[in-house]
Write a structure and sequence with these properties.
6 helices; 8-stranded antiparallel sheet; 246 residues
């Protein structure tokens, strides 16, 4: 039972660190709390003679505390607002695939201009502090991105459809590449919809190392990738709609 409670505590910690926890996940915890309270009632009602008065008091007090948590968690879950960007992170054939979609009230021309404003990308991406275009335009264009801890890496454009699609490959093979990835690429798309435009981002990452190292990286990175993409989509949407309003 002690081992199970430690696992439960670890699960709660992970959920509490997730900024975009869902109502369903919280309701699962509430259900487990309710089952604990029911088990406590059954224990006292049917196995009370096996317990001391102190034991019964402790079981009752713990059940009351857990019941309080269940009520508070249920009330908190009701306040969760689903983020507007639709984000998903999944594993496929050893790769981590992260995607996000967001509708904005802005014409595709404005959306495209914002998405391809490379220096301004650092203003909306939380993991980037500076972007420098090194050479070229369209296919073959290279840029250097700088991270918050002084790290940097180069990217090359490998997909370019004016007004519609922009893709890039990160040079993970470089000796100074700072992250444990053997491959990393991204694709940004924009299309018109009824009330404006919809843009999407897809990131494909291949972690380095053995099977265990890749699994650990995937588990840790899933929530991080999702948070970064949702923040990026929201920041981009704010800028796009602001420029569309003039």
């Amino acid at each position: 039972m002690g081992g199970g409670l430690l696992g439960f505590a670890a699960l709660l910690y992970v959920l509490a660190k997730n900024r975009f926890v869902s109502r369903a996940s919280v309701h699962e915890i509430v259900l487990l709390d309710i089952l604990w309270v029911i088990a406590s009632i059954v224990t006292v009602a049917f196995f009370g003679p096996l317990l001391t008065a102190t034991g019964i008091s402790l079981v009752t007090i713990v059940a009351m505390v857990v019941a309080f948590f269940a009520i508070a968690q249920f009330a908190g879950a009701a306040k969760i607002v689903k983020p507007r960007p639709v984000a998903d992170v999944s594993s496929r054939n050893g790769d981590l695939i992260a995607t996000v979609k967001r509708e904005v009230k802005a014409p595709t021309e404005t959306v495209w201009e914002v998405m391809t404003d490379h220096p301004a990308y650092a203003d909306v991406a939380s993991n980037i502090t500076k972007v420098e275009v090194l050479a070229g335009e369209g296919i073959g264009m290279t840029r250097r991105c700088h991270g918050p801890k002084g790290e940097s890496w180069e990217e090359t454009c490998d997909l370019f459809v004016p007004g519609r699609a922009f893709g890039f490959r990160i040079h993970t093979e470089a000796e100074d590449y700072p992250y444990p990835l053997s491959a990393l690429s991204g694709k940004w798309l924009v299309k018109p919809v009824k009330d404006g435009s919809e843009f999407s981002i897809e990131i494909t990452a291949t972690p380095k190392g053995n099977a265990l190292a890749r699994w650990v990286f995937t588990m840790v990175a899933k929530h991080h990738f999702k948070a970064v993409l949702i923040d990026l989509a929201d920041a981009w949407a704010t800028r796009m709609e602001g420029e569309a309003r003039g």
